[in-house]
Amino acid sequence: MNVDLRRRLLLGAAPLLAVALSLAVGAIFILAIGQDPLAIYALMLRQSLGTGYGLGQTLFKATPLIFTGLAVALGFRAGLFNIGVEGQLYLGGLAAALTGVALAGLPAVFLLPLALLAAAAAGAAWGAIPGVLKARFGAHEVINTIMLNFIAFALASFIGRFVFEPATVRTATVGAGAEIARLDVFLPALHGSPVNLSLLLALLVAAGTNLLLFGTRLGYELRAVGLNATAAEYGGVSLGRTQVVAMALSGALAGLGGVNFVLGYKHYFELGFSAGAGFLGIAVALLGRNHPVGVVVAALFFGALSYGGLVINQQVPKELVEVLQALVILLAISAQVLMERFARRMR
Amino acid sequence: MIESAPPISLRHITRRFGPVVANDDVSLELAPGEIHGLVGENGAGKSTLMRVLYGLLQPDSGTIEVAGRAVRIHSPAAAMRLGLGMVHQHFMLVDSLTVAENVTLGREPLGALGSYSPAAAEREVAALAARHGLPVDPGARIETLSVGAQQRVEILKALYHGARVLILDEPTAVLTPQEVDDLFRVLRELQAQGTTIVLITHKLAEVTALAQRVTVMRAGRVVGGGAIAEHPVERMAELMVGHAIPPLHARAHHEECVPLLRVRLLDVLDDRGLQAVKRASFEVHSGEIVGLAGVEGNGQHELVECLAGLRRAQHGDILIADRDCTALTARGRAAAGLAHIPSDRLRRGLVPEMTLAENLVLGRQREPDAGHGPLLPRRALEARAAGVLAEYDVRPPEPGRQARQLSGGNQQKLIAARELSRGAAVVLAAHPTRGVDLGAIAFLHQRLLRERDAGRAVLLVSSELSEILALSDRIFVMYEGRLVHETRPAETDERTLGLHMTGRRGAVAP
To answer: Is the same domain home to B143 and B18?
Structure first.
């Protein structure tokens, strides 16, 4: 029992080790540029977490990452690698905006849930396509989700020809009933930052995902398929159906991630708004060890890193943050393997 | 080439894996030219000890002496240079290469211009095979050979690399009785030429038949050993388990039998689309165990998977308790009264990364009483699990532990607990005791007999003929997809079954 606990602690420590190591390696880069790494890191920390505005920015950037990290993690749990989160998020945002524009006159009690539902449904549909292709024809979801990202970008541009404001790449503003309130309305300390109630939704969805995975029949079957598909089949689980359901759920989570920007910040959809939040979700899931709690923590870390990167722009090139992100991913994988080996030797 | 085998001493070998002591101060002497039986349950430390000797593991402490000289064996290559050879339980052969290519791999004979010469290799291997009385065709590709022939290739490979001490890990586990006879002949011949042989096994009769000396291990220690004459089978078994083994229950009388499983004219394909089961028809009645004997790969696997709903029937019907189940899924059949202990516990039977409690609900996760509505709360699962784990003697009985942390025997008991505790009318048990320790074997046998006595219909598939003979009321032999022979344990023996299993005798059963 004790060994078991120690083993879990070791595995849990892997992401922390990865973060620490990547900051250490990043320090070498900063030194090479001729800056003081400690000063840079201190500045990042102070600006991204130390002020109300900075904290708000960090939380704003973390919000979509919670959704996309959950989306990737849910797929992983079912043994599926959903790289199409970017496209699903993108179309989710578009669907939310179109709903918010088309039904602009409705009151918030109807319009907001409808817009959220539209975002989830669009993401689910886009996620279900590779799920069906996998279940029906055995086509690999990695290839198909990547390809569907490109199709999603092109589709949004095409739809935009009919719905965008003249001479712009954005939709009209959504009805007031579809807007998600900013947090600085309730917490003046966050004044000026775009963080909004989508964050609360993200946390609720994370809790819901946790319950789904570890407390329901569906989640049990989904994890069984991911861990040992032949045993799941033996246990009467339909592999194909579970794969489609898992991809649709993953897509729905990603689609909801689009509302942070579209309904909570700008109040319209604009081309390119996703800005890599979907792809970064893969890193978030990885660092969060595919666990909803870990995903939330990892999303906050990547959010801080993103915003912190903006504030140190004058001292070091902004690519430093990308280097740090890449290092974290590389080291998270290595640290996990290392810790697993270490834990095995303990037994 | 013909030099005598060196004497070998392993002294006070200790090897730990984390907190587990796999070898605890183990000493072993191998006299030149003897056949030495190394017996013990799974996990007793036999393989660890031999892996230390063969350079696959380094001991934490202790010394190895070869021919009186202390040596450090860092790798299998170093072991080979010292004249050691090992035949693993799972063969290490390249299927698409020929016998000669496999045997000479790593020390290929060179022809003109230093290129590899297949002809020279085949000549050398043929000569080596003839010298040691090992019949093989040097030009044949491995994938075309029987398991017994592949094993001979492994032995040849060791000899080609200069082995004078040969370690065989469970060599008979995969062989038919006739192939076992052939192997024993080869081993005696090798011994006559001065080769030392270590026979790792848990089949005690083989040790009695072959070895001059035996060493018994239990829980990482040597618990006994010496001349084989002083160690009858019962004595070895007691040493291995640590207590006397109870004999199997005599058959409880049963009055009435109704057919609970009926199979009619079943055709099943294997993974490659070839017909693996051909027109199989049989019945299993309430209160009986029907044994299905056969060399692995003769359609038993496909038959069981088809009965369990994991593989489609091309033709024929399956009736469970008078209900036609041919079109039902695995879950449908379970609901109709079928329990299934699958042959591959880690791939089919368990989700090793899940907990014991979660594994106990596999297959029943959709049943109403497993949870509430869509919920399947962990606490409820664990509460249900505790009693079942105790009843089926799964150790340790901790519902929250991962299944992969259990020993093979306990994993198998876990599966039995899940499948037998649901009270299904028909029990499919495929290789229920493969690779598990003696204690677990005895327990699982008792449980299957109890199922029989409770009026269930049990179909037992096994490649252990002793198991089939001990438990079955009726026996079918499967050969090349057909049921070729039906008999009763009292009317047959291992030899006769072996002949039917290899198609060397017998008319087709009706």
So the answer is: no
Q: Scanning every residue of chain A, which has its alpha carbon at the shortest distance from the alpha carbon of B375?
A: A216
The alpha carbon of residue B347 is apart from the nearest alpha carbon of chain A, in Å, by 6
pLDDT in tens, A93-105: 999 999 999 999 9
Contacts of A236 in chain B (CB under 8 A): 329-332, 334, 363, 366
The answer to whether residues B176 and B40 belong to one domain is yes
Predicted confidence (pLDDT) per residue in B50-98, tens digit: 999 999 999 999 999 999 899 999 999 999 999 999 998 888 899 889 9
Determine, yes or no, domain membership for B251. no
CA A288 to chain centre: 11
pLDDT of residue B202: 77
The DSSP letter of residue A80 is -
Give the predicted TM-score (pTM) of the model: 0.79
- The answer to whether B153 and B147 have CB atoms below 8 angstroms apart is no
Residues of B in contact with A221 (CB under 8 A): 365
What percent of chain A stands above pLDDT 90? 81
What's the pLDDT tens digit per position in B110-131? 777 778 888 888 999 999 999 8
- Pick the closest to residue B143 from B108, B99, B112, B183 (CA basis): B99
The CATH number for A167's domain is: 1.10.3470
Pairing of strands B196-201, B35-39: parallel
Q: Which residue carries 């290092």 as its tokens?
A: A327
Nearest-CA distance A104 → chain B (Å): 36
The whole-number pLDDT of residue B227 equals 93
Q: Sheet holding B69-71: strands in order across?
A: B20-30, B8-17, B61-66, B69-71
* Inter-chain residue contact B366 with A236, CB threshold 8 Å: yes
Neighbouring C-beta atoms of residue A18, cutoff 10 Å? 24
Q: Which residues pair with A309 in a beta bridge?
A: none
* DSSP string computed for B115-178: -B-HHHHHHHHHHHHHHHT----TTSBGGGS-HHHHHHHHHHHHHHTT-SEEEEESTTTT--HH
Judged by CB atoms closer than 8 Å, whether chains meet at A234 and B363 is answered as yes
User: What is the rounded CA–CA span in Å between residue B469 and residue B399?
Assistant: 35
Same domain flag for B157 and B204 = no
Task: Report if residue A23 sits inside a domain.
Answer: no
B158 vs B5: CA distance, rounded Å: 14
Measure the N-to-C terminal CA separation of chain B; round to a whole number of Å. Answer: 56
Q: Taking CB atoms and an 8 Å limit, are A227 and B351 in contact across chains?
A: yes
Which pairing describes strands B213-218 and B196-201: parallel, antiparallel, or unpaired?
A: unpaired
Domain that holds residue B39: 1-83+164-242
Tens of pLDDT, residue by residue over B325-384, are 999 999 899 999 999 999 999 899 999 999 999 999 999 999 888 888 999 998 889 999
Q: Judged by CB atoms within 8 Å, which residues 425-484 of B form the interface with A?
A: none
Taking the CA of residue B507 and the nearest CA in chain A, the distance in Å comes to 35
CA-based nearest distance A291→chain B, Å:
15
Asked if the peptide bond before residue A292 counts as cis, ω within 30 degrees of 0, the response is no
Percent pLDDT > 70 in chain B is 95
Beta-carbon contacts of A157 under 8 Å, excluding residues fewer than 6 positions away, are A271
- φ, ψ at B8 (rounded to 5°): -130, 135
